[in-house]
Amino acid sequence: GSGESSRITSWDSVPRDHPRIVVVLSAPDDIVAVNLSELRLQYVVAGAILLATLVILGFVLVRARQKGLQDLAETLRLEVDRRSAELRASEARFRSLVEGSIQGIVIHRNGGILFANKAYADIHGYPDPESVVALGHVHLLVAPEERERIAAYNRSHLAGHSTPSRYEFRGLKSDGHEIWMENRVSVVDWEGGPALQSIVVDITERKRAEQELVSANLKLEHANQAKSEFLSRMSHELRTPLNAIIGFSQIIREQTAGPPVADCYRDYANDILTSGMHLLELINDILDLSKIEAGKLDLLESAIEIGELVESCLRPMQARSSESGIRLVTALPRDLPGLWADARKMRQILFNLISNSMKFTEPGGCVEVRAELDGEGLELAVADDGIGIAPEDIPRVLTPFVQVESTLTRRHSGTGLGLPIARSLAELHGGSLSIESAPGAGTTVRVRMPGERLLRHAARSA
After folding, report:
1. DSSP-derived secondary structure letter, 103
2. Distance, CA of 21 to CA of 48 (rounded, Å)
3. pTM, to two decimals
4. How far apart are CA 325 and CA 441, in angstroms?
5. Is residue 18 predicted with pLDDT exceeding 80?
6. Is a pLDDT exceeding 90 seen at residue 447?
7. CB-CB contact of 163 with 156 (8 Å)
8. Distance (Å, rounded) from C-alpha 437 to C-alpha 13?
9. 288, 421 contact by CB (below 8 A)
10. Where are the strands (E) in 253-397, listed by range?
11. What is the structure's pLDDT at 246?
């Protein structure tokens, strides 16, 4: 009715067997409003609590996430620091290895120098690696005759072709001198591209030792050959006078030519004497050479007058000179000083040179002995107009037991010891011996004595 308050009514029907039952619920509006208000408040409180919970949970999750990220970041930072330290240590070890290496290391691409270590700069005579890099091109450190070969090797290496990775070549120092080097080449990645790494070692001393060994072997081979030739020649040299001595002695003993008053016995005795003296000369030469090589030949020095020395050597040659038709002349200045030397050995020097010149001079020729003073000392020279010697054969004639073959030398006997002994005796006095000659133009042998052996300059002359 009109006096009644407003009500909120709700209904619904439910089945009950066949009939349907209608259920009606009603309540005053104010009661419903209160209930709804309380219900909304509960929803609001619950929402606020849920929101706060979500906020707190989100904050916790964010903090946890942030802590996890911080831990991860710290872990990553420590790992980066560790890796960086290892990289720096590795780089330091590599740099120490490269810079401290005695092997030269250079990196180059298409000839351009990209890197060089201190050892490489030292090998080539540069003050520091920067000076090497500043050169610009690696081929400037290679001998001109080797550049084409080395450039071809480098191109082949970069192209991946089969090329020697280890070889020897001649390099250049900063002052232009050549050095022998051993090179090991490999392809490396350098600043984003392929480059060549060359590791070099200076082997100049080793090559010099190898060359000296080869030279020594050649000398040994020549010495063995000379010894064989000497033994063959000596066999003839010794047998010829021995046969004469034995043969003529038997004739005299058995008086084959009649009683000893026969004139031919004088000739036989002369031949025996000549042969015996020749044998003695051979033996003395061999003994002298042995003493010289052993360093046991001593000098018995005294004052020598040069004119007398020359005259004493020429006197025994006069008979031979007359027989062969070879003129013996001298050219000696009047004011020659005396010489402080071993008289017998100086006589042996001159006698060997004069005898050698006469041996290889044709009849009608001339042998001249001359002396000359200059600012450095005294020069004694023996010159002839004989067959001469080819320039390439001069070292051979100064080698013991060697004779240079020619038509004329085959007609003369000899051991090949005259010139070597003369040179050794001159050097024993502190002097020297030299030869100037040409085929068909004669030969001049010069013996130079040092100035301190001239008596007017030497304290010993007093």
Report:
1. S
2. 42
3. 0.47
4. 19
5. no
6. yes
7. yes
8. 155
9. yes
10. 301-304, 327-331, 339-342, 366-374, 377-384
11. 75
For tokens 């020649």, name the residue: 233
Rounded Cα–Cα distance for residues 144 and 177 (Å): 12
Residue 300: strand, helix, or coil: coil
410 DSSP assignment: G
Give percent of the chain with pLDDT exceeding 90.
25
Q: Are 242 and 279 in contact (CB under 8 A)?
A: yes
Pairing of strands 178-190, 20-28: unpaired
Question: What six digits make up the tokens of 36?
Answer: 């709804």
Q: Residue 421 in contact with residue 292, Cβ under 8 Å?
A: yes
- Please give the average per-residue pLDDT across 239-257, as a whole number: 72
Task: Give the whole-angstrom CA distance, residue 118 versus residue 127.
Answer: 8
Which is it for strands 366-374 and 327-331: parallel, antiparallel or unpaired? Answer: parallel
What is the rounded distance in angstroms from the CA atom of residue 402 to the CA atom of residue 220? 14
Query: Beta strands 366-374 and 432-437: pairing type?
Result: unpaired
Nearest alpha-carbon partner for 370 in 354, 348, 385, 389? 354
Q: Cα–chain-centroid distance for residue 190?
A: 32
Where in 244-353 does DSSP place strands (E)?
301-304, 327-331, 339-342
